[in-house]
Design goal:
Elements (H helix, E strand, L loop, with lengths): L3 E19 L2 E18 L3 E5 L6 H8 L7 E6 L8 H5 L2 E5 L11 H11 L4 H15 L14 H13 L5 E5 L7 H18 L2 E5 L3 H7 L2 E6 L2 E6 L1 H8 L2 E8 L13 E6 L2 E7 L5 H10 L2 E7 L3 H9 L19
Parallel strand pairs: 3-7, 3-8, 5-6, 6-7
Antiparallel strand pairs: 1-2, 1-4, 8-9, 10-12, 10-13, 11-12
Helix pairs in contact: 4-5, 8-10
């Protein structure tokens, strides 16, 4: 673990919850949000951190940023204990929450950046250089004088990402950064994050419900469920464990019998000239598309990705692995 930038060893977080059980009576119980969680992230890695709602993803990020203190275990980011040295760590990290904003609601976007310039005590030359670069890469030039409350969700999200990066953080935590964005905004944000990681080796931990975010940005994915790490490896390995499928939607010139697709692809639905074919998500669609285009009067087609929660649900329904289970394709074990 010597080269680990983020390190968690048997981290736990337990909340005490009080529930009303009768007149003037309350029951107190413990809820374990994170349970013996251990993993490391190397400097410069982009890692997808996914799981069903309530799995413990946001709790983990709040502990990594110092907002919450672990109930047990050891947690370090860049060698720093976040809960003990939160102010020191704040200068080395950036955080973007898709459902919340760090921008000042009634102020123009540029005023939020000026405030952060002072809060983080960013040197003037560095601030101007970073601001110019972020404004250009994220397409914010026409938005700087617009009050934040007047920005669309996609515009505000790009504004939040710029705000999180003004002080050159070494690690960036992204919680649903593309939620509610249109196709063009998603593409712009993904390309920016890819470039940021390649050029500046910024470590990125990404939580998302959009599988395309993971596919296009992350070489590694971790799945958490009920506070425990249940998978750590390549996305292809997750598809294999969860037996997930993509869907090829084919529009033909006219209504025809079900397409004779090569196994393991199969037709799962037919409505007039439109047919739906399922095939393993770990396989390329190129061969299937080429065969259909060569043998059938094709008008249009599209590929639909599997829902990430469905993939996880199918994976969690599979029998538990034995101690002798082989490593996944990335060399890590499925636990």
């Amino acid at each position: 673990m010597a080269d680990a930038f983020i390190e968690l060893v048997d981290v736990e977080k337990v909340f005490e919850v009080r529930r009303k059980t009768g007149f003037l009576r309350r029951e107190r119980r413990s809820v374990r949000a994170v349970d013996s969680l251990s993993f490391t992230v190397a400097r410069g890695e982009m890692v997808g951190y996914i799981g069903p709602n309530g799995a413990g993803k946001s709790t983990t990020i709040k502990m990594l940023t110092g907002i919450l203190t672990p109930s047990g275990g050891r947690l370090r980011v860049a060698g720093i204990d976040p809960s003990r040295e939160r102010t020191r760590l704040a200068h080395r990290m950036g955080v973007v929450f898709g459902q919340r904003t760090t921008l000042w609601w009634d102020l123009p976007l540029i005023d939020s950046y000026r405030l952060m310039h002072r809060m983080y005590r960013i040197p003037d030359a560095r601030y101007r250089e970073n601001l110019d670069r972020l404004v250009e890469l994220l397409g914010l030039a026409d938005l700087l004088d617009v009050p934040v409350r007047q920005l669309s969700l996609g515009q505000r999200m790009r504004g939040d990402i710029a705000a999180a990066l003004l002080h050159d953080p070494e690690v960036l935590y992204l919680d649903e950064p593309t939620i509610g964005l249109d196709v063009m905004s998603k593409a712009r944000v993904r390309e920016f994050l890819r470039q940021l990681n390649a050029e500046r080796a910024t470590t990125v931990l990404l939580t998302t419900h959009d599988l395309q975010d993971i596919e296009q940005l992350c070489s590694r994915v971790m799945v958490i469920d009920r506070g425990r790490l249940v998978y750590d490896g390549a996305l292809a390995g997750l598809h294999e464990v969860g037996e997930s499928e993509r869907t090829l939607v084919v529009d033909l010139e006219r209504e025809l019998p079900p397409i004779e697709a090569p196994a393991p692809a199969r037709v799962v639905r037919v409505e007039g000239p439109r047919q739906w074919l399922a095939f393993p998500a770990s396989e390329s669609a190129a061969g299937l598309v080429a065969r259909i285009a060569a043998e059938y009067p094709l008008v249009d087609l599209s590929v639909r990705e599997p829902d990430i929660e469905a993939v996880i649900a199918r994976m969690l329904d599979t029998p538990a692995d034995t101690p002798d289970s082989p490593p996944d394709p990335a060399g890590r074990t499925v636990r």
